[in-house]
Amino acid sequence: MRALSTISSVLLITVCSTGCLQKTLVNTVYISPSAVVVSIMETDVRSDKPALWERLAEEHDFVLDVNAGNHSTAQDLRELGGRSIRTAWIRRERPYGIVTEAQFSDLRALALAVIRAGETSGNATMTRTGCETAFEIWLNAGHADADDIGFHRLVLTEGHFTMADGFRLEDDNAVAVPDGKKAVDGIVTLRLRWIDEGCQRE
Fold first, then answer.
1. What is the pTM of this model?
2. Residue 91 pairs with which residues in a beta bridge?
């Protein structure tokens, strides 16, 4: 399904298949009261072309694309509607390493962008009641599970999660990681609730 391949290419830990640049991708979605930032770290980036000149050429093109802000991860985030896209080198020699970040208005905006990027149906809602924010996403994902949807690791910049369905909570309930929840009748539904730091309950 194109939806899952699109999402996983941007937002999941993965290793590229033979015939392209080999890399390990690790994403983190940072949730703050004012915005959401997707941070994608690519490490051990190297070409697996059979000939040395082909490997050097492919890796040279990668370096040029990163420096110009036109590498594939930046393009994918741009197509999702990410703003303020920036990339930093963490290793400038083979195997290369970079971190690319993009900003979205909130978690619902990111979820809807991911849904729109794929050939599937779904929706996402986010509501705030007092100090608590509630988020829900459902996706027609066939036989997929929560790990395939693209929310690999969600981190609150402040506050803590108060409820999770389809995630396990870690680090004093500040981090949510998909728990492998399976699709039911082809639908995967994920839910989170959290409270911002310092919010005063009425």
1. 0.84
2. 97
| Residue 115 DSSP SS3 | helix
Tally Cβ neighbours within 10 Å of residue 19. Answer: 8
Q: Are 28 and 39 in contact (CB under 8 A)?
A: yes
187: Cβ contacts below 8 Å, ≥ 6 apart: 138, 139, 140, 141
| Strands laid side by side in the 160-165 sheet | 122-129, 132-140, 187-195, 160-165
Q: Provide the strand spans (E) within 32-95.
A: 36-46, 83-91
pLDDT > 90 fraction of the chain, expressed in percent and rounded? 56
User: Residue 12's pLDDT is what?
Assistant: 39
Residue 62, classed as helix, strand or coil, is helix
Residue identified by tokens 């990668």 is: 62
The owner of tokens 């050097």 is 56
